[in-house]
UniProtKB/TrEMBL annotation:
InterPro entries on file: Cyt_b/b6_C, Cyt_b/b6_C_sf, Cyt_c-like_dom, Cyt_c-like_dom_sf, Cytb/b6-like_sf, Cytochrome_c550/c551-like
Transmembrane segments: 42-63, 103-125, 137-155
Record protein name field: C-type cytochrome
Cytochrome b/b6 C-terminal region profile domain ranges (all copies): 28-155
Protein's cellular compartments: Membrane
Amino acid sequence: MKRGKGLKFVGDSRVPINNRKPNIPKDYSEYPGKTELFYPDFLLKEWMVGAVFLVGFLCLVVVEPPPLERVADPTDTAYIPLPDWYFLFLYQLLKYSFASGPFNIIGAFIIPGLAVTALLLAPFLDRSPKRRPIDRPIATGFMLLAVAGIFYLTWEAAAHHDWKASKEQGMIRDVVELDKEDPAYAILEANTCLSCHGENLEGSVTGPKLVGTELSEEEIMDIAVNGRGSMPSGIFTGTDEELQQIAEYIKSIEE
């Protein structure tokens, strides 16, 4: 074969190149002790860990039942609801003047919406391939700010909540069947007595129970008109006949 100027080399795709390595990962068997099959080896381990966690969780539920409160009473206007601990920071946020009242939409939608949007944009705001937190100041700063804000708001909500009153208002009490068709019950409802003493007169944070009271009919009538303790005077605005009716009705209720 003659070599010289103007000689051209033509490649042939049918001729394999020995040093070309296809982009195929090595078989897992080439890494003994460092890898395993997803099914069934890895998946079986995951199922075992999940089963142990589930059994442990069920044991905790049996040993320590979740705390329950009494049935919700729509007439109890003094009841203060409290969300679960993981929502306490949002609960506290809605207490501030800039996020409550006429600005409630700011605390309920705008601020949480901005936080969720920042989370969604995090991969686009910080595209650094580095993994050390100190080398990613934007992502690390946002994370620390979010954690500090959630921790502070949760702490504030728990520290300023009246846990004693909360336990009292949620306490399960024996409910007595009342004759709610009795005209005296309608008189009690019309004079807003149920808002403090409960729908079944079992009592609440703002008013004592009237079921099985040791007060006499005269004392009940006097308190309804003149008040006592935290109950102001002038609550009852009915007639003397209606006053006598509710006194007899309350005394007729037994625990």
